[in-house]
Amino acid sequence: MINISSIKAHMFCPMSLYIQTFNDSEKSNEYQLAIEIKKLKIDIQDLIQKNMRKVKKEMSIAEIESELSENIDSFIKSNTNAIISMDLPIDPEQINEIIDSTYFNIKITALRIQQAMTIYKKDAFAIIDMFFPNCMYSYLLKDPQLELIGVCDKIEIVDGKYYPVTIKSTNPPLKGVWDQDAIELVSYAILLEDEFDTEVFVGFVDYEKINERRPVVMDVNLRKGLFEVIREIKEIIENKKLPNVKINPKKCNKCQYENYCIK
Ligand code: SF4
């Protein structure tokens, strides 16, 4: 089975997938940490959604923000402490990033809620579906025939249609989405179609640093691109084929395997 996390690594650099697969003893810890951070961010969203039920249309922006922020600090603190107690390598910068992005998200959400409450003349409770549609989080999808498995961050269901959503803490491109994010999303879309016997026409990347959602159309070219990537991954993982990559200083400087590669 090919895990979608392998697709992400391959899209960043095929060599990084090779190193991860055959030489990286630290891999499982970092992978586990990434999963725990993602889970925490999803739980924070849930808490904001719960807090939103108490927001009234006569509240000021400051009051809405304060309502949405209730228990957020203590929640982040207890959960990051739990991650530390699991001996996972989280550093203070990552914790600050979680706090900053949460409060940025709360500010933007407060503004949007206030505007929507004014337009619809309703309390937040009555318009909550606009902000938090019916959805499933961290949903495991797999297709034995395709030999593909992965956990989709979020699946939103609107009017019986399914929309895969991937949540990214990376910097977004100036427009559109990164190729690797589009390929990840189409892999969820294909698994989703099989799991729910449905068709998926569009998915979304949520770039949380700028609190922006960007759509990706699941067209034929993107689907073909995924199968090409899966073929290349099989060559690396199953046949241990060393990929032929060019050093790209811009990318390599940010890569955790830079020293390994130079050696
Ligand atoms: S250092 Fe560069 S070539 Fe090596 S794995 Fe990282 S991105 Fe790829």
Give the number of helices.
11
Q: What Rg do the Cα atoms give?
A: 20 Å
- Helicity level, as a percent range? 55-70%
- Write the element-wise H/E pattern from the N-terminal end onward: EHHHHHHHEEEHEEHHH
Structural class: alpha/beta
Number of strands: 6
Q: Which shape, going by the Cα principal axes?
A: globular
- What is the level-2 CATH architecture name of the largest domain? Alpha-Beta Complex
Structurally, how many domains make up the residues? 2
Poorly predicted runs of 5 or more residues:
none
Return the average pLDDT rounded to an integer: 90
Q: Proportion of β residues?
A: 15-25%
- The CATH topology of the largest domain is Lambda Exonuclease, Chain A
Distance between the termini: 31 Å
Main sheet? 6 strands, mixed
Bound ligands, named by name, code or SMILES: iron/sulfur cluster
**Which class of the largest domain in CATH terms?**
Alpha Beta
Describe the structure.
The chain has 263 residues and is α/β, with parallel strands linked by helices. It folds into two domains: 2-24 and 133-262, Lambda Exonuclease, Chain A (Alpha-Beta Complex), CATH 3.90.320.10; 30-131, no CATH class. It is 56% helix and 16% strand. The chain contains eleven helices and six strands. The chain has helices at residues 4-12, 14-22, 27-52, 61-68, 72-85, 92-120, 128-131, 179-196, 220-239, 249-252, 258-262, and strands at residues 2-3, 135-143, 148-158, 161-168, 202-207, 212-217. Strands 1, 2, 3, 4, 5 and 6 form a six-stranded mixed beta sheet that branches. It starts with a strand and ends with a helix. The mean pLDDT is 90. The structure holds iron/sulfur cluster.
